[in-house]
């Protein structure tokens, strides 16, 4: 996966054909009424992110969306505009080489489809596959983030890691719902089909961190339990700041790669900087020696 290039004209065609606007309901934007097996981790062996002639130095980036009932507005925001903004600004800023994006949808652990994952892509298929996901729209109990971590740790084959020893980037975006921390292994077995012996969510997180720099964007208030799990890599933002998510993601990547806060803020419009700065100031990059 990861062939081809993303273009503004392709996005315009897709947006017009699907009549994507921010005032549409989640059911109007996400029209699937069940999970397509090609996105169901129980039927996926491996997601590949390989270099190609078009993209010789791929950088895997995963955007995981909470698709529980309370988060419909977020999915609509991402599908109708924020994903396009993220991709185009990744290219315009040169934040990473050859970005290849996967979208994931994670819900309540008790959902019929608690996890869905797309392919890694570098063209309009990024957005097309996001729109193909099933928005189950159920409760907002304990979310299956640990299942996404386990899938990325054991069901991905990535040239950036294998060839260059460079980690990818994972950004999950959701509200204050608790990450599922009990019955970790039985939940993974039900959702993915893998027999694991993690025992704790912390062990799953440590595993995925071998491949990915892991961040979480939490909307509308903090959750101390989740923040303790992802200490220094959680950003709490208000609902009114979700329009800045593309810039927050790109800036966090740049800081993980070694840039200082004031450097990354300079590239954005002055009106956007306070929201971006507020989010980034919550991060700690002790592993790369960056101080804020």
Structural shape: globular
| Strand line-up in the sheet with most strands | 4-3-2-6-7-8
- Span from first to last CA? 36 Å
Helix content: 25-40%
Strand content: 15-25%
Structure annotation, total helices:
12
Mean pLDDT: 92
Explain what this protein looks like in three dimensions.
The C terminus is likely disordered. The chain is built from twelve helices and eight strands. Strand 7, helix 9 and strand 8 form a beta-alpha-beta unit. The strands form two sheets. The protein has a six-stranded mixed beta sheet, with helices on both faces. A two-stranded parallel sheet has the order 1-5. The protein has 292 residues and is of the alpha/beta class.
Q: What's the quick description here?
A:
By secondary structure, the chain is of the alpha/beta class. The chain is 36% helix and 15% strand.
Properties at a glance:
292 residues; alpha/beta; 6-stranded mixed sheet; two-stranded parallel ribbon; globular; disordered C terminus
């Amino acid at each position: 996966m990861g062939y081809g290039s993303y273009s503004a004209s392709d996005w315009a065609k897709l947006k017009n054909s699907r009549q994507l606007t921010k005032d549409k309901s989640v059911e109007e934007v996400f029209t699937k009424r069940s999970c397509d097996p090609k996105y169901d981790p129980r039927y996926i062996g491996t997601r590949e992110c390989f270099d190609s002639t078009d993209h010789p130095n791929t950088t895997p980036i995963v955007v995981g969306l909470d698709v529980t009932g309370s988060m419909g507005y977020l999915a609509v925001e991402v599908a109708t505009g924020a994903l396009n903004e993220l991709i185009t600004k990744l290219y315009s800023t040169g934040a990473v080489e050859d970005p290849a994006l996967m979208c994931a949808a994670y819900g309540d652990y008790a959902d019929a489809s608690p996890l869905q994952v797309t392919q890694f892509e570098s063209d309009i298929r990024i957005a097309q596959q996001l729109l193909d996901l099933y928005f189950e729209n159920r409760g907002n109990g304990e979310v299956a983030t640990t299942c996404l971590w386990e899938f990325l740790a054991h069901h991905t084959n990535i040239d950036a890691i294998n060839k260059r020893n460079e980690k990818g980037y994972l950004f999950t975006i959701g509200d204050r719902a608790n990450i599922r921390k009990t019955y970790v292994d039985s939940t993974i077995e039900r959702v993915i089909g893998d027999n694991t012996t993690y025992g704790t969510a912390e062990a799953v997180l440590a595993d995925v961190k071998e491949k990915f720099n892991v961040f979480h964007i939490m909307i509308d208030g903090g959750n101390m339990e989740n923040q303790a799990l992802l200490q220094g890599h959680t950003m709490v933002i208000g609902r009114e700041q979700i329009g800045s998510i593309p810039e927050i993601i790109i800036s966090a990547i740049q800081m993980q790669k070694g840039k200082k806060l004031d450097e990354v803020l300079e590239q954005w419009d002055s009106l956007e900087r306070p929201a971006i700065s507020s989010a980034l100031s919550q991060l700690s990059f002790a592993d790369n020696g960056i101080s804020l």
